[in-house]
Design brief:
Blueprint (H helix, E strand, L loop, with lengths): L1 H7 L3 H4 L2 H9 L5 H14 L1 H12 L16 H17 L2 H15 L13 H14 L1
Helix pairs in contact: 4-5, 5-7
Amino acid sequence: MNDYSSIFGCNLYTEFTPEEIRSIVKDPIANHSLTRKLAMFVYNSEGVVTNTIDYMVALPCLDRDVYGKKRKFSKTKLNKNKDLMLSTLEAIQDKQFIRDALFTDLTDGNGFDYFETTKKSTMLQKHYLTMMLKIL
């Protein structure tokens, strides 16, 4: 058993049995929780893996480039819509959301990400509804 542990260098077999590793390799979907545990173990114990994932999460600049079709809207309405979209992106903290999703996908292999919106006041709902009707 120590021979295998020295091959990987991260004391893998102190945390997982060879049977668990075999079951993960055979069917990672059926052993999803064990696969995630193994992925986080490797992320936390191997510096190369940690640095690679952290670099891949930090690499995208995530600059916002909001634009619309100028022929559909007047310039003032277009700017108003851009400002509304930018404020929405800031409200949901889009950059942090994307980075968290990237980290989850890279460490777990998959991710199910969502964000929840809270109920708006009736005045804001009427404003958004009016804007949507004007846009259509």
